Amino acid sequence: MRVVVDASVVVKWAVPEPYSQEARKLRNDHLLGRVKAVAPPCLWLEVASALREYVIRGVLPNDKALTAAELLYQTEVEIEEVDPRQVLATALKHGVTTYDAAYVYLAEKHNTLLYTADEKLLKHPKARHIKDY
């Protein structure tokens, strides 16, 4: 089964946060082949941005953030290209950012669930909070 994951979930694979345990269960299922985690190309930039914020706030030192980025990248989330025109149409339709729309677009395209910890995305019918995984 294919599921879409956003950066709010993937970061929890390496950084202890609320619902990290549920996020890691999804990661483990992905690594064991029980599910296939997919995301748009913006995933890794959003993950890098989140890790940078942790460094700025003093939650992680630089070296830990860099190590986390490497470990997360090794999980081999399937990155699927998205058509920017379709993403824009999705953003306008659902009133979300284009980055969020890229995840929503993939969930709609594959008729599958989008796991997130982003409250704004939970308004979409395909979105599920990671706490429910």
UniProtKB/TrEMBL annotation:
Transmembrane parts of this sequence: none
Pfam families: PIN (PF01850)
InterPro entries according to UniProt: PIN-like_dom_sf, PIN_dom, PIN_Pae0151-like, TypeII_TA_RNase_PINc/VapC
Family annotation (PANTHER family): EXONUCLEASE VAPC9 (PTHR35901:SF1), RIBONUCLEASE VAPC3 (PTHR35901)
UniProt keywords, alphabetically: Magnesium
Name of the protein in question: Nucleic acid-binding protein, contains PIN domain
Top-level taxon of origin: Archaea
Domain PIN: 3-123
